[in-house]
Design a protein that fits this description.
Layout (H helix, E strand, L loop, with lengths): L6 E4 L10 H4 L7 H7 L4 H22 L4 E6 L2 E9 L22 E9 L9 H15 L4 E5 L12 H6 L3 E4 L7 E5 L1
Parallel strand pairs: 4-5
Antiparallel strand pairs: 1-2, 2-3, 3-4, 5-7, 6-7
Bound molecules: coenzyme A.
Coenzyme A binds next to strand 4, helix 4 and helix 5.
Length: about 190
């Protein structure tokens, strides 16, 4: 159990600006072509363009799906972030070998990002708390399963390392790529 005092808030249009800087312009899952194209442009132009795309994704997904992200605040500052949603709106899933990711019609939600931005707060239970917040939310809304692609032995991955998901009760759904397996938890 963490001793860190935190508040978890759903992402809404009003707090989109609190998404941590390293994630606010990351459209890796949502718009993979734009993500690749922007790498060739000037840093500032690129950042503004991608932040607008990210905003667009959140506004549309909030309307059509409901809550699709959370921000964790500590001492009034955003320190962690998560994003999740229907797999069809996170098309870069198709670039992975471990598949298929379940569909929203089957009650499946994909966890695309889980990120403790403040590195001094890692390994202090915050990831567990944030994941539990997402699971409770999805259960309440009647979803059946949460899935994610985890990276074996390496935390450098959008939703973090495999070990974190094993610890939180996830099991393997597909290990076509054993280093990047598709993990799931029945809610
Ligand atoms: C993965 C992550 C969300 C976990 O959050 P956290 O608050 O650090 O993790 P917790 O303290 O809740 O850890 C719970 C358990 O998960 C496992 N775990 C967490 N991080 C781990 C790591 N880096 N390696 C192995 N196991 C890990 C451990 O079993 C841990 O329990 P323990 O500390 O008692 O051993 C966080 O480390 C993170 O943000 N990593 C970077 C992810 C990233 O780069 N995302 C990119 C966004 S584009």
């Amino acid at each position: 159990m963490s001793e860190i005092e935190v508040q978890i808030e759903d992402i809404r249009e009003e707090n989109l600006r609190d998404i941590p800087a390293s994630c606010s312009g990351c459209v890796y899952w949502e718009f993979p072509e734009e993500f690749e194209k922007a790498k060739k442009e000037k840093a500032e132009t690129q950042k503004l363009k991608l932040e607008e795309k990210k905003r667009e994704w959140f506004v549309q997904t909030l309307k059509a799906f409901g809550t699709c992200g959370k921000i964790v605040y500590h001492e009034g500052k955003p320190v962690a972030y998560a994003q999740f949603g229907p797999s069809v709106w996170l098309p870069n899933i198709n670039a992975y070998d471990s598949k298929p990711v379940g569909k929203m019609e089957e009650g499946v939600v994909f966890l695309s990002c889980l990120y403790i931005a403040d590195k001094t707060l890692r390994r202090r239970g915050l990831g567990d708390i944030l994941l539990k917040g997402i699971i409770d939310d999805l259960k309440r809304r009647g979803f059946k399963t949460i899935e994610t692609i985890a990276r074996r032995g390496d935390p450098n991955n959008p939703s973090g390392p495999l070990e974190f998901y094993i610890k939180n009760g996830f099991t393997f759904k597909d290990k076509t790529n054993p280093d990047l397996p598709l993990m799931r938890l029945f809610l």
